[in-house]
Amino acid sequence: MYMADSIQGDAEALNKAGSLRMQSYRLALLALENEEQLLQEHIAKFEQTLLDYSLARAIGNDPASTLHRLYGKAVERWRDSMLPLLQNQPRQIRAFRAEVPVFVNELDQFVHALQVKSEGKLAVIRGLQIGTLLFTVLMAFFVLLGVYSNLITPLRELTRLAQQIGRGDFRSKAYYEARNELGLLARAFNKMSDELADLYDHLERKVDEKTAQLQRSNNSLELLFNSARSLYRSSADPIPELASLLLPVQRSLGSGPVSLCLNHASQKTCFSAHTAVSAERQPPHYCRLPDCEQCPVHAGDGKLAGGTELINFALRSGNSELGTLRVEQPQGVALEPWQEQLLSAVAELFAASLGLSQLGQQQARLALMEERAVIARELHDSLAQALSYQKLQLSRYKKQIASGHPKAELDATLAEIQDGLNAAYRQLRELLTTFRIKLDMPGLAAAVRTTVLEFSSHSGVDICLRYALEHCPLSPNEEIHCLQIIREALSNVIKHAQAARCDLWLHQDKHGLVHICVDDDGIGIDVNKSPNGHYGLSILAERAGSLHGRLKIGRRREGGTQVHLQFLPAYRRIPLQQEIETT
After folding, report:
1. Are the C-beta atoms of 237 and 357 separated by less than 8 Å?
2. Residue among 259, 255, 256 at smallest CA distance from 325
3. For 35-44, 249-258, 277-286, 308-317, which range has the lowest pLDDT when averaged over its residues?
4. What backbone torsions phi and psi does residue 547 show, to the nearest 5 degrees?
5. Which residues pair with 308 in a beta bridge?
6. Cβ 346 vs Cβ 315: under 8 Å
7. Are residues 573 and 455 in the same domain?
8. Which of 133, 155, 181, 208 has the most Cβ atoms closer than 10 angstroms to its Cβ?
């Protein structure tokens, strides 16, 4: 930059120096023409050009330089030799013209010196450019070499390591050591690769462990599901099914023999024992039935010969202990947590099955007793009273015979006895029909439709059914009573109403009450007069009372009879009671 700045103005200096030669010739010409004013103007212009700043700048400040010497010589010739020749009077034009070539020659030397100096500066600049270019190329070479060695090579190594890690090879290393950022990154990659390898191995072990746990859990769930399904499908006695499940339990546990010891809830002694080893439902080898006091569980704290012991899981249903599920295990070797959980779940399942079986048996006994009580009540309220009345009539008939009453009175009494026996027979047939009613098809709707089809097809009465209890879950007892009330009401319509049409409507209102309406267009009914020997209306009232409902029987405004039953189903009683208590 310094050399370029020093060259600035050299061309102007050469131009000025060149113009001095032309101006000197012009002065010589003007001196001949004797034009004073014009001559003085050119003299001033010549001196101005001779002393111009560009020339002084091109010459420089070194008095010993050739340019300075030549310039001084030219200035001195002008001032000392040439200018006086033009200014003195008379002018010495010839002498001036003789000095002009000498002056021009000196100016040529001066111009040549300026040119040489300027070319020297250019040569220096050219050398500097060449040197700078060589230095730049050399520096670029070293920079590229450094970039390749310190950047590209480690980056390739790190890229290779990243690709190896991406393929799951965590044992590869980045072979690059340096105290810079890439070296730190390579060490971090190596450390990360080691940690990933350890983590991957740890995860593989964890996955294997979790897979084994899931497999065990799946086997346990499958065992519990199959056991629950088998017990659900089993008959009233679940003990054979429980005994058959001991071997699958043992296989799932992978432990020693599994056995089952059962006892009654009211007794401490056992009545049955089974083991998974025997396929013939035999007790285990340590069992001493019926002498339970000699059992190792009570006599030896569960210790058996051969270095094994019994681990017990009680079968409890509520507050009752129904038995024990046992597994033989080497002494000092505890069961794993999943084995304990599985055995506890199996014990709860067995206990639930036994409890449900006992509850079912108890409910069956209660149902049988209730059914016998219902039959006894029905027989007492209908057939027993009719037979008792006929017994009195028979005694009366005997007394009439003994007293010698006329034949007409005897025949009348005998006719009453015969009518009473026929009525009793009809009541017996009605009771048999009522007791044989059952819901073969699921739900009340199908049974009601079948009943309507049965009565309408054999009677000629047009029975129209509107059933709207699809979303009302009635209990089996409620369904039976509703069906019997409907059958009794339809039977009365067919036998006594002399109706051509009957409407049967079942629905539930917004308060949860179930309504059953049987309307006919017959002759109507007088509820205050009930024929002797007929108990249909009283049976309807009793069944309505069994449902905790209300029964209304009366004439319709349009003619005919209406039987209206309303009751609150069992599933609505508890919420309704809670609503009443809340309000």
Report:
1. yes
2. 259
3. 277-286
4. -90, 5
5. 304, 330
6. no
7. yes
8. 155
The tens digit of pLDDT for each residue in 140-162 reads 999 998 888 878 888 888 888 88
**576-to-512, 566, 579 alpha-carbon distances in Å:** 9, 16, 5
In a domain, 480, yes or no: yes
Apex CA 439: angle with CA 436 and CA 445, to 5°?
135
Q: In this structure, are residues 120 and 106 in contact, taking their beta carbons and an 8 Å threshold?
A: no
Q: Checking DSSP bridges between strand 308-317 and strand 320-330, what pairing results, if any? A: antiparallel
Considering only CA atoms, which of 292, 286, 265, 281 is closest in space to residue 358? 265
Domain count, the chain: 3
Long-range contact set of residues 347-352: C-beta below 8 Å, sequence gap at least 24: 347/313, 347/314, 347/315, 349/224, 349/227, 349/228, 349/231, 350/242, 350/260, 350/315, 350/323, 350/325, 351/315, 351/316, 351/317, 351/322, 352/317
- The CATH number that applies at residue 312 is 3.30.450.40
Phi, psi of 456 (to 5 degrees): -70, -35
- CATH for 63: 1.20.120.960
Give yes or no for a contact between 347 and 325, defined as CB atoms under 8 angstroms apart: yes
By C-alpha distance, which of 81, 96, 117 is closest to 39?
A: 96
Please indicate, yes or no, if residue 373 is contained in any of the structural domains.
no
Number of residues assigned to the chain: 583
Helix (H) or strand (E) holding 582: helix 570-582
Q: Which residues form the domain of 563?
A: 438-582
Residue 502's nearest CA partner among 464, 553, 456 is 464
Measure the CA angle with vertex 569, ends 567 and 570; round to 5°.
135
Rounded Cα distance, 170 and 272, in Å: 62
Q: What is the reported pLDDT for 583?
A: 43
